[in-house]
Amino acid sequence: MKTVLVTGGAGFIGSNFIHYVLQTRDDVQKLVNLDLLTYAGNLENLADIENDPRYTFVQGDIRDRTAVKAIFDRCDFDTVVHFAAESHVDRSIEEPEVFLTTNVVGTQTLLDAARDHWKLAPEDKYSRAYKPGVRYLQVSTDEVYGALGKTGLFTETTPVSPNSPYSASKAGADMVVRAYGVTYGMPVNITRCSNNYGPCQFPEKLIPLMIHNALDDKVLPVYGDGMQVRDWLHVKDHCAAICAVLDRGEPGEIYNVGGNNERSNLEIVRLVLRALDKPESLITHVKDRPGHDRRYAINNEKITTTLGWQPVYTFDQGIAETIRWYLDNRSWVEHVISGEYQNYYKKMYGT
Ligand code: NAD
Ligand code: TYD
Predict the structure, then answer these.
(1) Strands 229-231, 262-264: parallel, antiparallel or unpaired by DSSP?
(2) Nearest protein Cα to ligand 2, atom 7
(3) How far is ligand 1, taken at its centre, from the CA of residue 23, in Å?
(4) Are strands 196-197 and 229-231 parallel, antiparallel or unpaired?
(5) Per-residue burial over 211-239, b = 16 or more CB atoms within 10 Å of its CB, e = otherwise
(6) What pTM value is reported for the model?
(7) CATH code for the domain defined by 3-201+233-260+293-313
(8) Which candidate, 39, 92, 98, 143, has a CA 20 to 30 Å from the CA of 173?
(9) Which residues are catalytic?
(10) pLDDT, tens digit, 9 for 90 and up, residues 126-181
(11) Which protein residue's CA is at the shortest distance from atom 10 of ligand 2?
């Protein structure tokens, strides 16, 4: 991996990934971040590296064929790591359409540009030969598998059965990536990870929303009984897993990535309150999310045994560091929640 296109690099995981790569990978000579800067994209996440000679930011839409092709023509990428997406389940319930256009059509646009650029014999429609060493990695989610009951874990062969417009759009994108691998022989991978946590996560998602509300002594809105379970993964462990797949992953393979760390939502909320020395009386049970998946949990065996990746963060360490980051970066939160987020919050939670 020498010349890397990262899409959605101004978001939560993408910005952590860019830092991770620039800090740990001397082999990367150029990294371009293509991001539309939607409400979820924030260049403040990257302010400390904006003058790094290896890094370039391009504002653009992955659905814009002309713009995406132009970036490939300018930079001879050998690696694409595709994070850009509409990523929030609750928003997908309110406004599904943009999830389909960005997550599915945007993915196809990117695949087409990579295919055109990497194909060795563009005039031969049957050719499956690509430039050596190229790789397209689709960052997907365990939510494509749907919901688990009390027991069991998602493996890579669990049938895809998404329940929200968000997870349906991610599953649709995965199917397109898979088809480009099978039909055109493109060297693709898909990673499906569990819920990430860590610095720079937009405060519409559970952990930063609860930290932010608790700090302001606002109610903590827990959907339904709060006993839904997620398998929390530290974002830096996720970044290491993506690099492991880029370095050693078999083309065409899917890799699940999880933190071996199942927690109920109520457990998370109580932990945040304890860490901030705030009372449990702030917890307020609100109407449940429609179609709410009860439990997600990942079987990591494939990536650990075949690629040697392991999560290294304990949840105690990861969550303590994350809460500390939000305490130390209150102005970051204030900036990202000004404007559009206030309207969203009123629409979602009524206050
Ligand atoms: P995020 O919402 O924080 O960031 C998404 C980024 O994509 C933003 O910077 C946004 O500006 C950009 N973007 C959106 N539409 C775009 C478009 N049309 N063109 C170009 N850029 C666009 O998301 P995240 O939490 O960092 O998630 C990144 C990826 O990881 C997503 O694909 C998501 O589905 C996947 N994922 C996330 C989690 C999680 O817990 N956050 C878990 C599993 C998978
Ligand atoms: P979220 O962070 O939106 O991630 P996902 O839905 O992709 O798993 O939500 C994590 C869990 O927390 C999920 O079960 C929904 C729940 N939740 C609440 O109970 N209250 C909230 O205000 C939010 C945002 C989420």
Answers:
(1) antiparallel
(2) 89
(3) 21
(4) unpaired
(5) bbbbbeebebbbeeebebbbbbbbbbbbb
(6) 0.98
(7) 3.40.50.720
(8) 39
(9) 142-143, 166
(10) 999 999 999 999 999 999 999 999 999 999 999 999 999 999 999 999 999 999 99
(11) 206
